[in-house]
Write a structure and sequence with these properties.
CATH superfamily: Uracil-DNA glycosylase-like domain
Radius of gyration: 17 Å
Number of strands: 5
CATH topology: Uracil-DNA Glycosylase, subunit E
């Protein structure tokens, strides 16, 4: 399952691995965790169709177990290519495997989700300058209700602020281009 979303998405979400529903449909985050992710996106001022959603692993591990290091390494070339093609401004790493893998590859020492969730790291990852924000996987909040307010806060406060900053940047850039035609940009 490769993932879905616009190829020029400014925000990318990277989970750990497809679950049962995802495996059946070939779409990321469509089960109960996906429904919660859709709610979280709305809290941050986002819609699913505006973001790119994928996973570290591209297929479901047996018995829905945690990803193993060799599986992560086997799937990583696909993820690297996705990140290079989409070139997002921020990646939200959903869960410890996504957070540890992405931040580790960017040279940031992983010290656990409890310490690192909701923090934004400016990095260069696979040749792309971007930000990474790890947070708990939506499924974790469903299994451990005490995590629900934590992940909601990460989306409503931190990610929402980043989304608003991206939108302000787009507005100021587009203001400077008013009155121009495509020919103005092509001619230099």
């Amino acid at each position: 399952m490769p993932g879905e979303g616009p190829c020029d998405a400014e925000i990318m979400f990277v989970g750990e691995a497809p679950g049962g529903k995802e495996d059946e449909t070939g779409r990321p985050f469509v089960g109960a965790a996906g429904q919660f992710l859709t709610e979280l996106l709305s809290m941050a001022g986002l819609r699913r169709e505006d973001v790119f959603i994928t996973n570290i692993l591209k297929c479901r591990p047996p018995n829905n177990r945690d990803p193993e290091p060799d599986e992560i390494e086997a799937c990583k070339p696909y993820l690297v290519r996705q990140i290079k093609l989409v070139s997002p401004k921020i990646i939200v790493a959903l869960g410890r495997y996504a957070g540890r893998t992405l931040l580790g590859d960017a040279g940031v020492k992983w010290s656990g989700m409890t310490r690192m969730h909701g923090k934004v790291f400016s990095v260069e990852l696979y040749g792309v300058k971007l930000n990474i924000m790890p947070t708990y996987h939506p499924a974790a909040a469903l299994y451990y209700p005490r995590l629900k307010p934590v992940i909601i806060k990460d989306f409503k406060e931190i990610l929402k602020g980043i989304v608003e900053e991206i939108k302000r940047g787009k507005e100021s850039t587009s203001r400077g281009k008013k009155g121009h035609t495509i020919l103005d940009f092509l001619s230099g």
